[in-house]
Amino acid sequence: MMKGGLGGGSKKEGKMRIRAFPMTMDERYVENIWSLLKSAIQEIQKKNNSGLSFEELYRNAYTMVLHKHGERLYNGLREVVTHHLESKVRQDVLASLNNNFLQTLNQAWNDHQTSMVMIRDILMYMDRVYVQQNNVDNVYNLGLIIFRDQVVRYGGIRDHLRHILLEMVVRERKGEVADKLSVRAACQMLMVLGIDSRAVYEEDFERPFLSQSAEFYRSESQRFLGENSASVYIKKVEARINEESERAKHYLDESTEQRIVAVVEEELIQKHMKTIVEMENSGVVHMLKCQKTDDLHCMYKLLGRVSDGLRTMASCVSAHLREEGKALVNVDESGANALNFVQSLLDLKDRYDTFLVKSFVNDPIFKKMISSDFEYFLNLNLKSPEYLSLFIDDKLKKGVKGMTEQDIELVLDKTMVLFRFLQEKDIFERYYKQHLAKRLLLNKSVSDDSEKNMISKLKTECGCQFTSKLEGMFKDMSISNMLMEDFKNHIQTSGTSLCGVDLSVRVLTTGFWPTQSPATCTLPLAPRNAFEVFRRFYLAKHSGRQLTLQPGLGSADLSAIFYGPRREESELKEKSDGPSSSTSSTSANGPRKHIISVSTYQMCILMLFNTRDRLTYDDIMNETDIPKKDLDRALQSLAMGKPTQRVLVKSPKGKDILPSSIFAVNDSFTSKLHRVKIQTVAAKGESEPERKETRSKVDEDRKHEIEAAIVRIMKARKTMQHNVLVSEVTEQLKSRFLPSPVIIKKRIEGLIEREYLARTPEDRKVYTYVA
Amino acid sequence: MDLGEDVSSMFGKRSKTNSNSTVNRSRTKGMEEAPTSFNQKKCIAWFRQYSTPNNADTIGPEGVEAFCRDLNVEPENIALLVLSWKMGAKQMGFFTLQEWLLGLTDLQCDSLAKLQGKLNYLHSLLLDSSNFKSIYRYAFDFSRDKDQRSLDVETAKAMLGLLLGRQWSLLNSFFQFLDQSRYRVLNKDQWCNVLEFSRAVDVDLKNYDVDGAWPVMLDEFVEWLKVTRGESIIQ
Q1: pLDDT in tens, A55-64
Q2: Which residues contact A44 (CB under 8 A, 6 or more apart)?
Q3: Residues in chain B within 8 Å Cβ distance of A764
Q4: Residues on chain B touching A753 (C-beta within 8 angstroms)
Q5: pLDDT (0 to 100) of residue A552
């Protein structure tokens, strides 16, 4: 027995000599060592390792390698292992093909691993030295390779293994029981056999698994679709995904999870998403209609898994939203009611905001799409700006029933959201001014604060230019109040008579307030004189200014006495049996005094009857000079409204006012109220010709705005190419309206003609500013 | 028209020659005259043959007509336009003494015969493209009513016919377009751009650049032309 270690023999006295280790071993010796090792290995393989001495075997292996017989050892090892696996193990496994195959294979695998570990330990020196130097597989890996090639990938075994594993999966999917642990063990084995890659697992199991799964899910999808319900489909898909996920995590290899889920997503979602989304009576549209926020959320989650899934869903939602929006917006003329119009749009926005938050988790794709849809259909109806203004007008007027300040604030904020979508904001501005003017002048605002609040909201959206005129209007109101104070003092101190007229004047700065069509009418003497007093007073204070009376905006309170019998009495004459109990007349038989609140025009009309009993329409028109449209409206309110409003009577009776119609004071006028306010037949929206006029005014304004923008830009930049100029102009104006490139071009041409701009001689597409 | 090198050597030359120099080397037809140098007095006297009775410093429309007759040139002849351009004449149908002298001194003509000899030269100026452009632009101001900024469509068509009649094949289509359009006048920018258009855009309109900053009128012309050719449908 050779002793390991350096230095053999005895130490010589004195000199320490290190003798070279005897390198040669004779063949017989090597053979012996190898036999020893071989049988040891075989014993290990037979699981009879208990009687072996680790130290001895290790030493032997070490010796062989040291004496440069590593190769022999290595080859020998390979032979032994191969032989064992080939002749014993494989046979065992093959025998078990139809009987406990997986368990047998697993057992064989475990045994192999155990024995290889032990073998490796014995041959560790070879691993460290020989294997390293010769760049061959180490012992353990060698064992794996042989096991892989001789057992696992041996024809029949390989196929059967695959078959069994796939079989298990099929059963599981059907809901039957399968031997999960064996499957797991087998998969782990395959993973290990790949050594540093998952190639074996992939080729022998995963690839066929994935392709079988794809087929399976292909038919599953048809089955699911057959149920014809999107929400059911989604739930089933979710269930399957979870199932596959679990299976991969626990029983296959973890790395498969991502891949199998991708297969399910592909087969069940990607390929059918359009069908699901568009499914009749259960798809997205149905869910939207029935407010099924949860179902939508499930679908959202599901479709979010595949590329373009969300976009498919979003475009379906968008199409439906646009339809809903269009339906709301395309109300025809007669049915159009501004308040309903806007309210229905606000309700629609609320609904979709709920969807956005609850179903779509504030996803930016959906958010953007909802905004662009609203922008699209809101601007389909050219009256949207007007309606929006009327809606806000309604909310700012006194008598908004049942809403607290917070409620109103909330509604106005939501209205601002719609406002943002308007493309023709300049038209809105025009109407807002008109409506605000009416509110201020007729004293209809709920509160100054709410008005100012609204204006600051608009300022935030559109900048000061938008709101500066509106603010000017407010200023005028407060200045007018102060002015009236001064005027009253002036009257008192100077003792001037106002002819019995209690005059209140509001002075409006022309640029701020909406332009009125110049209208004059012939005022009755008393108010006319009273106004003259004021005019003189004012012009004394502000020389150089011009005051023009606006009869269309004023109002008057008239004190009226009616001498005729009360209205009811003349209708009570019938019911008498026996002696006519004349209880009729005596109660308050005297003349009735009332205060009638009317518009200026109505005042002019009524005052005529102080000197005359009856007048024809023509008479009235000639004497008052009131424009026909206003005259008709005024007379309608006075003569053809509710009985408690009918201060005048018209003959002949009937709906039409003709030039020959005759008007007279209604002597029987009766009202429970002392002060009667005559409601003007208010035109809720504009009439068609009025609207056309507004629009043409807007177009005029736009021309100027475009030209101003062009000049502004060119003045700053001196020269600019045509396309660049057009896009800059569009950019600058887009917060007010969207000018078309053709219109901008026309304006450029106009400016060229008037020599503000010129084309450069070198390039006719480039303009230059003419100073 | 065969111009020969003597004319081409005068190409673009608009320099004022002084009255003592250069012999007029023109080809004369018919009337032979011994070449004499330019005489301003003679030129003025010649002017006075046509000037109006109440204003000796202006030739009015009848005078112009007579002048043309004597020159043996129709008033619509483009040579007259070129001559007016040379003179810097402000208003069609009128020449002032100043304008007369300016133009004729440049041409070194103080008599009918000499001027007749220069007619070919005048025609030749049109061949140079920058001269042509200048003459074209001049034509607008020359032919418009002085108290209007724009040129009425009928006069415009006449001038365009004169100037572009031979070189722009789309001219007639353009006239048809104008006839059926609302346009009653052309402004200067539109006028100038018609020339550019005739030079830049092919008959088949394929290279018409919609973003080319052409005046709206020309955009409309192209659109109309495409429709009439059946190439597009107006919505």
Answers
A1: 989 998 998 8
A2: A52, A115, A118, A119
A3: 193, 196, 213
A4: 149-150, 187-189
A5: 79
SS3 category, A469: helix
Residue owning tokens 């290889």? A116
Q: What's the 3-state SS for B36-98?
A: CCCCHHHHHHHHHCCCCCCCCCEECHHHHHHHHHHHCCCCCCHHHHHHHHHHCCCCCCCEEHH
CATH 3.40.630.30, domain B130-229, yes or no: no
| Beta carbons of A742 and B189 less than 8 Å apart | no
Number of Cβ atoms within 10 Å of the Cβ of A159: 12
Average pLDDT, chain A: 86
Q: Cβ atoms within 10 A of the Cβ of A558, count? A: 16
Query: How would residue A24 be classed by pLDDT, with cut points 50, 70 and 90?
Result: low
**In which residue are the tokens 């298990």 written?**
A168
- Please tell me if residue B213 touches chain A, with a CB cutoff of 8 Å: yes
Q: Model confidence over B156-198: pLDDT tens digits?
A: 999 999 899 888 999 999 999 999 999 999 999 999 999 999 9
pLDDT grade for A379, boundaries at 50, 70 and 90: very high
Q: Which two tokens mark B107? A: 């041409």
Architecture per CATH, B40-127: Orthogonal Bundle (1.10)
Tokens of A572: 């009570």
In whole angstroms, what is the distance from residue B192 CA to residue B159 CA?
13
Residue A423 Cα to chain centre, angstroms: 18
Interface of A with B (CB under 8 A): 722-723, 742, 745-746, 749, 752-753, 759, 764-765
Q: Where are the domains of chain B?
A: 40-127, 130-229
Bridge pairing between strands A675-677 and A592-599: parallel
A481, with CB counted inside 10 A (0-12, 13-18, 19+), is: exposed
> Are B40-127 and B130-229 the same fold in CATH?
yes
Reported pTM: 0.72
Q: Quick one: pLDDT at residue A721?
A: 93
Extract the tokens encoding A315.
Answer: 């475009």
Q: Does B134 touch chain A (CB under 8 A)?
A: no
Considering CB atoms only, which of A746, A764, A765 is closest to B216? A746
ipTM exceeding 0.90, yes/no: no
